[in-house]
Amino acid sequence: MALSEEERFRFDLTGFLVRPAILNSDQIAAIVEHIDRIQHDPQSLSPAERDVPGGPSNVLIDHPQVVDVLRELIGPDIRLENCTCLWREKGQRHGELHGGGPQQADPIFGYRVKNGRIHAGMVRVIFELTDIAMQDQSTHFLIGSHKAEFPIQEKHLSLEEGQRSPYLTSYECPAGSAVFFTENLCHAGPVWQRDTPRVAVLNAYSHLATHWHRLKTPPAVINGLPREKQAYFRQPWITDFHTNPVVHNTMERFIDGDDDPVSSEHITE
Ligand SMILES: O=C(O)CCC(=O)C(=O)O
Ligand SMILES: [Fe+2]
Predict the structure, then answer these.
(1) 266 in a domain, yes or no?
(2) How many domains does the chain divide into?
């Protein structure tokens, strides 16, 4: 198992988990510089690097300390279905608390534990590329809400100072940390309070058979990745019954085969 018993307990109890400092300083510097150019000077980049996870951020797609955890949380076959970068200046925010509660019933997001195993739907991984202190106001979580069966009550949804739920929690971590959370956990990106920006990459992983986000990663970026990383974008199916014996959509099949890495569901307009 990838998670220690303590990590598994913590993820199940709260719905999120921080793995501190899994990237080295060279990796962090290269990705921050790349995101700066994506956000502020995209024309200086080749089309293959004009968005994440192209260029140096491709190390995040299949970081060993991340995919091991995801395979334990989601299942052995996973996809990367959305990848975004952020450069959040003081005063900017993502928005209000959202998600969690009874959408638990939806297999895309749902979180359940059976036979000693976690079966999470979509899991988001935030790669924090700057140090995060509590007062900076990084992503916040309403802990336990990933298992809530009743609607999340209004008084627990405030981000106002002094009116926040006692269950609203965040984290501190050094640059280069990975923050995992189940998409069924109620969460928010409040107003960023630090003078220097928060730079991060957000990856959404899901079970191989599901796809929530319409893929927005540009085809040129996916085409520019090594084949074993393109495999994380393979089509969302498990078994092909057209063939005898049936074929399974494994990572190895994709890597050894000639499937077009850019599937028809791409936004091309
Ligand atoms: O930007 C943030 O801090 C939160 C992002 C968020 O809500 C999400 O990844 O779904
Ligand atoms: Fe969100």
Answers:
(1) no
(2) 1
